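Example 3.2
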Amino acid sequence: MYERVRGGSWVVAIKPKFDYADQFRDGLAPVEISHRTSFINKTGKVVIKHSNKREFHYGSSCHRILIHTKDGAGYISTSGKLIVKPQYDYAEVYSDNRAVVGKNSLYGVIDEQGNIVVPISYKYIGTYGAGLCPYKEDDLFGYLDLRGKVAIKPQFVRASDFLGGFAKTLKPNRKTGGYINCSGVELFNFRKFDSIGVFSEGIAPVQIHGLWGYCDTEGTVVIEPSFIRALPFKSGLAPVQVDVNRYVYIDAYGRTTIEKEFSEARPFCEGVAAVRHMYKWGFINTLGNYVVEPQFIDVGECSENYAPAMWYHGVGYIEFF
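Structure, written as tokens:
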């Protein structure tokens, strides 16, 4: 039943035998059976086996995988080679070839070889994005660059990680925050929005008076709020909720480009988007045509041409061509 039989532009690549499965990164994906996590390759073979001494993190980058042992947190390569010996009380996955680590409630940053680039002496350090990470000093937040040098001096009472090239910040004595760019210049203030999402492809979802639309990087509303929900743009398209259990896709001008209605829809990734019709999930392409007819209980995001897919009795992977 689960042989590699073609189904249009996709196949069942790894049969459903897992309790949980996540995206592929660097050719490996974390899977779980009976609460025990291992990493598999794209043939479904276990290449890094879970043991009682290791707990693998679900996310990885820079060809590094976070592990936890009785000696603390460390990192191994995707081949299982020890890169950074377990020694930290706290550790995060790599981003921008940097990872945040901590000891005794203080934090620093290491590079991909485990060398310390930011001393473990700060009360808070966030995740790198766009080559910058937020840090806290004397109750104010600023940003460090990849060398650990101050790129944006501490001046905020709140500061987020950089996502999509921008970060949310709040300055002292202000009621509302604003978006800054990588130079620390505030682009616009949030005062006219109820809520704002993350920028993607130059625009971000915004909520005004309970409805969602989109604004550009200057804070100008470019798609008027008229949606119950609005998700990020990918591949020039964004899924929006127009009614109860009714989603369509719009372009950057707010025009409905995929008029076929879905019960739920997610952003595009690698040219396909996960959509739900009634109670089943499938995938469409940017023309709105099904490349995988709705048939799964749930699906994950496509990554490296593979996507997790859930059947009634397990999770496996489908492969796109």
